[in-house]
């Protein structure tokens, strides 16, 4: 982290191509965090410093991020034409590239990483794969009032350690829609502010467990 930043201030990269889903970014910035936003695989990889400059459309220098949150389905971006070869326009064509961005972020040593999709398991076969990553009890945040809910939204997800990074995969059922207090089974918007809160809590929980284990 930058030594000139306030202790609670984080450098965050959000990879999101739908501006509507960025409605909670101001809430994140109001907490004192710095947020960069890009819209494609190539721009994300370049900003993280994981790919040669000639393959990217973004000219910004490599930055160090504390957190990366990415959409699941994204455009390749103009810088990926060398990777795509012949075929549809890489600035328009979309694919489930969030997995590649998350793994590359872990390769670059970024501590906290999340894939955040607004799709639920009925939306696409790729989105349905996120059902694999609920904890064994399978408690959705959207269960009825008579069912046990997780202590915190998003806490019912597996947390993966990749190298020294923590990686979590969230979908629309994990958090309230922006401006609401409860999740919806078929929500269509993302709540990046809530996802960040869950991700930070997961990081604190893991750090506490590691500290106790070393005693």
Characterise the protein shown here.
With 215 residues, this protein is of the alpha/beta class. The chain has one domain (11-214). It has 6 helices and 8 strands, in the order βαβαββαβαβαββα. The chain has helices spanning 25-30, 41-48, 81-84, 98-107, 125-128, 192-214, and strands at residues 11-15, 34-38, 67-70, 74-75, 94-95, 112-116, 160-162, 165-170. A 6-stranded mixed beta sheet has the order 2-1-3-6-8-7, with helices on both faces. The chain has a two-stranded antiparallel ribbon with strand order 4-5. Strand 1 (11-15), helix 1 and strand 2 (34-38) form a beta-alpha-beta unit. Helix 2 packs parallel to helix 4 (98-107). The longest helix has 23 residues, at 192-214. The radius of gyration is 17 Å and the shape is globular. Residues 52-61, 138-150 and 208-215 have low confidence and may be disordered.
Major sheet description: 6 strands, mixed
Shape: globular
Low-confidence stretches: 52-61, 138-150, 208-215
Q: Treating each run of at least 4 consecutive H or I residues as one helix, how many helices?
A: 6
Q: Order of helices and strands, N to C?
A: EHEHEEHEHEHEEH
Distance between the termini: 26 Å
Q: Please give the number of β-strands.
A: 8
Quote the beta fraction.
5-15%
Helix content: 25-40%
Determine the mean pLDDT: 77
Number of domains: 1
SSE-based structural type = alpha/beta
Widest sheet: strand ordering: 2-1-3-6-8-7
Estimated radius of gyration: 17 Å
């Amino acid at each position: 982290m930058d030594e000139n930043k306030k202790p609670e201030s984080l450098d965050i990269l959000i990879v999101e191509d739908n501006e509507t889903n960025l409605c909670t970014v101001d809430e994140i910035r109001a907490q004192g965090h710095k947020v960069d936003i890009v819209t494609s695989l190539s721009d994300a990889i370049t900003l993280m410093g994981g790919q040669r400059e000639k393959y990217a459309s973004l000219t910004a220098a490599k930055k160090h991020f504390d957190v990366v949150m990415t959409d699941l389905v994204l455009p390749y971006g103009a810088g990926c034409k060398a990777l795509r070869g012949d075929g549809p326009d890489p600035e328009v064509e979309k694919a489930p590239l969030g997995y590649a961005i998350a793994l590359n972020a872990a390769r670059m040593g970024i501590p906290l990483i999340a894939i955040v999709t607004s799709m639920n398991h009925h939306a696409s076969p790729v989105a349905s794969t996120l059902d694999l990553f609920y904890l064994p009890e399978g408690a959705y945040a959207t269960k009825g009032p008579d069912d046990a809910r997780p202590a915190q939204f998003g806490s019912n997800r597996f947390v993966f350690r990749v190298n020294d990074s923590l990686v979590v995969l969230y979908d629309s059922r994990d958090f309230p829609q922006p401006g609401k207090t409860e999740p919806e089974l078929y929500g269509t918007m993302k709540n990046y502010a809530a996802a960040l809160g869950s991700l930070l809590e997961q990081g604190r929980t893991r750090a506490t467990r590691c500290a106790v284990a070393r005693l």
